[in-house]
Amino acid sequence: MLVRLSEDHGVDEGRWFLEAGFGRVDDQGQPTFADLDEAQAWIQHRLDGQ
Fold first, then answer.
1. Quick check: 36 and 18 in contact, CB under 8 A?
2. Which residues contact 33 (CB under 8 A, 6 or more apart)?
3. Where are the beta strands (DSSP E) in the chain?
4. How far apart are CA 5 and CA 50, in angstroms?
5. What is the pLDDT of residue 1?
6. pLDDT confidence of residue 50
7. Whether the Cβ atoms of residue 13 and residue 6 lie closer than 8 Å to each other
8. What is the average pLDDT across 6-19?
9. How far is Cα 48 from Cα 14, in angstroms, rounded to an integer?
10. Is the separation of the CB atoms in 47 and 24 below 8 Å?
11. What tens digit of pLDDT does each residue of 14-42 get?
12. C-alpha to C-alpha distance for 20 and 38, rounded to whole angstroms
């Protein structure tokens, strides 16, 4: 599940945050992404097993 960070997150405002991932998309590092295209590419990379 991706969520967009609010102004409460300072310099990260507007970035997308991996709130919850499952299976290969689970990541304890809780990555953030500049936009949805970047998030989609990261998710696809994980699903491809890379």
1. no
2. 2, 15, 16, 17, 18, 39, 42
3. 2-4, 16-18, 32-33
4. 27
5. 93
6. 67
7. yes
8. 95
9. 27
10. yes
11. 999 999 998 989 888 889 999 999 999 99
12. 17
Residue 16, class by beta-carbon neighbours within 10 Å (0-12 exposed, 13-18 middle, 19+ buried)?
Answer: buried
Bridge partners, 43 (sequence order): none
Number of CB atoms found within 10 A of residue 18's CB = 19
- Two tokens, residue 2: 């991706």
Stated pTM of the model: 0.82
Decide if 38 contacts 25 (C-beta within 8 A). no
Q: How confident is the model at residue 49 (pLDDT cuts 50, 70, 90)?
A: confident
Return the higher-pLDDT residue of 46 and 50.
46
Structure-token pair, residue 5: 């960070």
pLDDT score for 28 = 83
